[in-house]
Amino acid sequence: MKVFFLLSGEHETLPKAEAIACLESIGAKFNVIFCLDSILAVRLGKTNKINEIHDRIALSHKICELFFSCECEKEKILKNVENLSFEKLKFSVRVLRIKRYFRNLSTLELEREIGSVIGEKTKANVDLENPEVEYYGVISEKFVFGKVLHEINRYQYEKRKPHLRPFFKPGVMIPRICRALVNLTRIKKGEKLLDPFCGTGGFLIEAGLIGAKVYGCDIDPRILHGCKKNLEHYRIKDYKLWVGDARDLANMLKFHDFDAVVTDPPYGISASTKGAKLEELYKEAIKTIHKVLKPEKFACIVMPDKIKGESFAREVGFKIIERHFERVHRSLTRKILVLQKKKL
User: Helices marked H in the chain — which ranges?
Assistant: First the structure.
């Protein structure tokens, strides 16, 4: 089966990386067919697990079965549609243009003409309000066409915006990005995820909602109490929190076998490092994270881009899988490292 993800355009690299991480987290066998602006197409092996992804992925709009891709020329598009077989079901056709690609192509005309071809072939009725099947075309560097399998519920993240939680602290990540970073760790339902600088619980909330057992540590008892309030507000029950210094985790914990770590240590004017120098804080934290993570498992760590996190990670034996960058404001760009602990 071939599928494509309609990726959100809110970040240059994270949406594609998240989609691939989600596929890996369900154990899907796949290979990438092509990657265009806002589109990732993959060929899946024998699996019925694709349904598990749409509930956890955050930075995509749709998951579609891929029928074909071709040059963005109307004649070629319609010829490809004519060569397809379709089910006799009430249907709709939607065409989306990414950015300003091929503005000579009218999305409305394409919808009408593709719909006309499908209607002629199947004798089925068009139903824009309640279709039994939705066919979807995307104009990017190429034209991509298929059938919608899943619409991603992105509104759920709006309902969990930080200022709507019982306990709020400015400067925290929005839920969609938190969920994406949790997904980059390849965490599975029932596995143990740690945030050693948990703050108000943004990562723990998103991990808990996809069924992970969540563990959080913070040096500030007041913040930790707020984190507990937030977790319980979202009915996350399988959690453990404790007050402590993340740099001393290995000595505090009786077990060192977490399946994933995701964290955004404190930095900036509004954050407190309790007197620790920033470089030293990250160096010691990365060393401790390596100790408590299982071999071959993943950690996702956020830091200012000036921090030499790659060097610290390599020193303790991490393999660097990915790097992403997110500009926060003029004087701060976040660097997101995805690390894998090497096999013993």
Answer: 14-25, 74-82, 107-122, 155-158, 175-184, 202-209, 221-233, 249-252, 278-292, 309-316
- 8 A C-beta contact, residue 175 and residue 205: yes
Whether the CB-CB separation of 146 and 66 falls below 8 Å is answered with yes
**Tokens for 276?**
């620790």
How far is it, in rounded angstroms, from Cα 87 to Cα 48?
21
Q: What is the pLDDT along the chain (344 residues), one digit of tens a residue?
A: 999 999 998 999 999 999 999 999 999 999 999 999 999 999 998 766 788 899 999 999 999 999 999 999 999 999 999 999 999 999 999 999 999 999 999 999 999 999 999 999 999 999 999 999 999 999 999 999 999 999 999 999 999 999 999 999 988 999 999 999 999 999 999 999 999 999 999 999 999 999 999 999 999 999 999 999 999 999 999 999 999 988 888 777 766 799 999 999 987 544 444 556 889 999 999 999 999 999 999 999 999 999 999 999 999 999 999 999 999 888 889 999 999 999 87
Q: Is the overall model pTM greater than 0.85, yes or no?
A: yes
Q: Compute the distance between CA of residue 211 and CA of residue 188 in angstroms, rounded to an integer.
A: 8
* Residues 81/145, Cβ–Cβ less than 8 Å: yes
Report helix, strand or coil for 43: strand
How do strand 213-218 and strand 239-243 relate by DSSP bridges?
Answer: parallel
Q: Are 239 and 214 in contact (CB under 8 A)?
A: yes
The CATH number of 2-151 is which of 3.40.50.11310, 3.40.640.10, 3.30.2130.30, 2.170.150.20? Answer: 3.30.2130.30
Q: What fold, for 155-341?
A: Rossmann fold (3.40.50)
Tokens standing for 99? 């950015």
Three-class DSSP category at 265:
coil
Distance CA 282, CA 310 (A): 11
H/E segment holding residue 81? helix 74-82
